[in-house]
Amino acid sequence: MKTITQILLALSFCFFSNAANIFAHFSGNLxxxxxxxxxEWSNLKDLERACGGWTPFSSVKNLSQIKVIRFPRREGVxxxxxxxxxxxVIPMSELPMKDGKYQFQEGDLxxxxxxxxxxx
Length: 120
Known about the structure:
5-stranded mixed beta sheet; 17% helix
């Protein structure tokens, strides 16, 4: 049986943790494309763990090649009907960063591209 101290400690972690879990969509050269729950602040290893890993053809060494497609939030007048920008394509290397982790938003689409191999 859990003590009151253990329960309070667990609750305080849930309520006062700075990190939030969000749902992001993964596609491209990865083992299991789909929608996964990740931490708002995640690094490349966290993303790899969430989607089951990369394929042998994925290009993940250069973070500027990994693209995050971000859709505008549906807030404001008429459920966001006044939004002019449809979406933004952001290289992962340009996302806000804190303690070695990148900031993702709810609904982001993370695209892992294929490695380009030039054969002579």
